[in-house]
Q: What sequence folds into this?
């Protein structure tokens, strides 16, 4: 085998220029493949992140709605008749009963969820409608009472905080983080006090400790964050009063089935991320398919280059093949020599391509990319995942092997007598 | 000829070409070559002497009859086995040198030895140098195969044929492309191989002077062996 490699390398060196051109072809396609997929996936992750980072996999809440069973349904009429359906009733515009939108038994549900192996994190939330008093006008707002440290850990809260520190929000008394849009409307800055009126008419003053920006303007104009304790105090509710429980799972794919399970187990409403954001995965998938298709086509084109060059080489080397066979190399040896030629070209081109791809990714990763929508992003996103490098190299070797196989087979079938006598 | 070691035995070999029409080119050819014998095959162009040589070389397997090399029947042997047989027991010298231009002179000589793999690379290299020196081209060993003269190339080809100490060396017009001085040198080498190294030689040639000086002349005409004369 070593001898065959030596022969292959010698033949390659004799045709150095053509070999280099073939290798450059492979290198180019691998580099493009890696760059394209890294860039595409980086963008995908960025865009998906907009939704995924901020959204719990399953959200449990209690929706105030009209009871399915109205009291009249419970009344049993003495049924005199077996022929008709009996008496029935029509109630229009039934109203829900006066009830707080709290999640009943929230503490018990949370401790049950925390024991579940499939669950990564459980965080309670208390959402309250408020009005911000700015001079004589009032602005609508929604204050999300959150467990700040859990938000930071599991929902990348810090990434969206353009000013201020999460720690101040967690520990500060009556502290609030305003959406960037809302703060601009109120001309509020860090350290300012804002006046808040709750739905029940209570007023309090909150201190601004930070600003956040998600990139979704409508959201940033309305939403605010505060610690759960602050919100509980604001709307005068006890410390076990929560409106939502956000659940993050180990495996996103389980979300729909687990949402249904929680719904029946805890008798609450549950919505999962898939149902809430059905469209975003489709976009990612299509982008992925396109980039893989382009990458694979590049590699196939490079494969044709190798095929061409090997074919030419075989015609030029018929004498050499004949003499190798005459002196005792068998058809398999000859086939291996030419296959080795192809694989060496593939390997050299592949390794060069990986390096080139990495360099290109680095370049793109340093190109400035500023957008209002994404405050934490300063350069184009790249996914440097090893996965793409492995796929690229595997595919490069596969293409070069196939591209080399046919010419190599032809070489192995060369009849030395024909070549030698033909002279 | 019984009692001698037979290197090559051919029994009733027939061969036809089918394209464009069927022509029988070898008709019941039988011959034997003993160890250390220097044999030449002569005949007119198209008499089938080269065709016979390529059958004997095991490269052409499309024939009827039986061919034994060193007692081993080759009729039904696999291509891989035949390649191994050529590598170990047969050396070739062609009319056109057929060296690999990408390799050095020394490497060209070494290749069949490395393929056989019975000796280490260093031993093969040493043996190749010995052969090149013996053929008085030791000083050319490290040159590229395309950098030396025609006569030198043919000597390199002979050294390559000798590298595995084959039982028999076959040549197809090995002096046909050389001037008379170089032809003389090559003939001298062949003679030494037969006498000193005790190798058999089977050389196809149409050079009557060359043939006349070999141990035995096999004369062919129209696909048949028409005469076999030992040198007087």
A:
């Amino acid at each position: 085998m070593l001898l065959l490699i030596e022969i292959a390398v010698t033949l390659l060196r004799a045709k150095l220029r053509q070999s280099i051109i073939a290798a450059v072809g492979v290198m180019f396609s691998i580099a493009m493949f890696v760059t394209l997929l890294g860039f595409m996936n980086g963008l995908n992750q960025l865009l998906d992140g907009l939704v995924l980072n901020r959204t719990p996999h399953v959200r449990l809440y209690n929706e105030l709605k009209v009871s399915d069973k109205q009291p009249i349904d419970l009344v049993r009429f003495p049924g005199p008749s077996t022929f008709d359906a009996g008496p029935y009733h029509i109630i229009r515009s039934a109203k829900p009963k006066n009830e707080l939108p709290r999640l009943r038994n929230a503490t018990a549900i949370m401790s049950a969820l925390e024991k579940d192996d499939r669950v990564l994190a459980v965080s309670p939330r208390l959402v309250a409608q408020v009005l911000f008093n700015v001079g004589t006008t009032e602005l609508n707002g929604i204050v999300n009472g959150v467990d700040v440290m859990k938000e930071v850990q599991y929902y990348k809260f810090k990434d969206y905080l353009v000013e201020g520190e999460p720690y101040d929000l967690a520990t500060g008394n009556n502290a609030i983080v305003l959406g960037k849009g809302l703060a601009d409307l109120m001309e509020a800055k860090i350290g300012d006090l804002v006046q808040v009126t709750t739905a029940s008419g209570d007023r309090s003053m909150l201190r601004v400790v930070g600003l956040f920006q998600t990139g979704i303007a409508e959201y940033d104009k309305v939403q605010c964050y505060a610690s759960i304790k602050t919100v509980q105090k604001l709307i005068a509710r006890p410390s076990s009063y929560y409106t939502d429980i956000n659940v993050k799972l180990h495996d996103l794919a389980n979300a729909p089935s687990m949402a249904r399970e929680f719904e029946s187990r805890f008798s609450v409403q549950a919505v999962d991320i898939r149902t809430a954001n059905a469209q975003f995965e489709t976009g990612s998938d299509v982008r992925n398919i396109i980039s893989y298709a382009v990458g694979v086509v590049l590699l196939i084109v490079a494969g044709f280059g190798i095929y061409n060059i090997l074919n030419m080489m075989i015609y030029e080397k018929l004498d050499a093949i004949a003499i190798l066979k005459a002196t005792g190399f068998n058809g398999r040896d000859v086939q291996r020599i030419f296959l080795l030629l192809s694989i060496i070209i593939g390997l050299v081109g592949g390794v060069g391509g990986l390096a080139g791809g990495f360099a290109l990714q680095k370049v793109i990763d340093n190109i400035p990319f500023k957008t209002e929508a994404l405050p934490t992003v300063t350069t184009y996103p790249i996914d440097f995942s090893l996965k793409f490098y492995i796929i690229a190299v595997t595919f490069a070797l596969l293409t070069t092997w196939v591209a080399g196989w046919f010419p190599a087979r032809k070489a192995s079938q060369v009849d030395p007598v024909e070549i030698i006598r033909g002279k | 000829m019984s009692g001698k070691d037979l290197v090559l035995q051919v029994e009733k070999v027939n061969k036809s070409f089918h394209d464009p029409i069927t022509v029988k080119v070898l008709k019941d050819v039988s011959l034997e070559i003993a160890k250390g014998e220097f044999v030449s095959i002569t005949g007119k162009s198209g008499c089938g002497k080269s065709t016979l040589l390529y059958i004997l070389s095991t490269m052409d397997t499309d024939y009827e009859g039986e061919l034994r090399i060193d007692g081993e029947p080759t009729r039904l042997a696999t291509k891989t086995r035949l390649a191994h047989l050529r590598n170990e027991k047969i050396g070739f010298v062609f009319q056109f040198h057929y060296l690999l231009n990408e390799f050095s002179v020394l490497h060209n000589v070494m290749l069949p030895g490395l393929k056989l793999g019975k000796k280490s690379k260093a031993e093969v290299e040493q043996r190749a140098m010995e052969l090149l020196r013996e053929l008085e081209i030791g000083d050319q060993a490290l040159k590229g195969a395309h950098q030396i003269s025609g006569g030198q190339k043919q000597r390199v080809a002979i050294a390559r044929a000798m590298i595995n100490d084959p039982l028999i060396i076959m040549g197809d017009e090995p002096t046909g492309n050389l001037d008379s001085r170089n032809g003389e040198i090559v003939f001298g080498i062949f003679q030494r191989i037969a006498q000193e190294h005790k190798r058999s030689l089977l050389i196809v040639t149409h050079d009557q002077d060359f043939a006349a000086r070999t141990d035995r002349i096999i004369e062919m005409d129209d696909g048949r062996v028409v005469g076999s004369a030992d040198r007087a």
